[in-house]
Amino acid sequence: MPPKKVKSLRLCSAVSSTGSLTDPPKPPKARVARKASAHPSTMEMVKEALKALDSRKGSSAQAIRGYILDKYPSVDAVRLKYMLRKALTKGIESGDLVRPANSSGNGAQGRFRIPAKSKTKEIKAKASENTDPNAGRALKAEKAAVKTSKVQEGEQTAVSLLEVMTCWLLDHVLLLFSPM
């Protein structure tokens, strides 16, 4: 005897048969204010440690971690490991931190230093010497307006597509696990 056919169950009422959304989106819940931490951000603590551990060869991640734990006992030692790794890689990418010539390593391994300020001041002085101070403002405003309109359109399509796919997936999973 063949198995009984199960009627399709529609649990998700947000999607009509055409695939368009019928219910209006719910307003986001109010977020609880986060309490201020007893220590500065990880990047600021790293910069402070590098200044204090001032070494020509740079300082290792382990030395930086030890300094932060000594100076800020309220920092969670387990979480600091991951936050420090992220801060070091981000600092290298953004240019806030540099590696000395003798350092070999990638990511959060090796040695780190704060870059010399003389080079950055010279570059900024040369760049601002021949430029029109008002030219950049108009371009920034235009780019910001275009970017916000693109982001709003992208969010709407991404949210609606995500909701449709979620409902479809729920319906098919229920069909698989429903009793025959």
From TrEMBL:
Asked if Nucleus is a keyword of the record, the answer is yes
Instruction: Give GO MF terms, alphabetically.
Output: double-stranded DNA binding; nucleosomal DNA binding; structural constituent of chromatin
SMART domains per the UniProt record, alphabetical: H15
One biological process term from GO is:
negative regulation of DNA recombination
What is the predominant subcellular site recorded for this chain?
A: nucleus
* Sequence ranges of Basic and acidic residues compositional bias: 119-129
Which residue intervals define the domain H15 in the entry?
38-116
Q: What protein am I looking at?
A: H15 domain-containing protein
Q: Which organism is it from?
A: Scleropages formosus (Asian bonytongue)
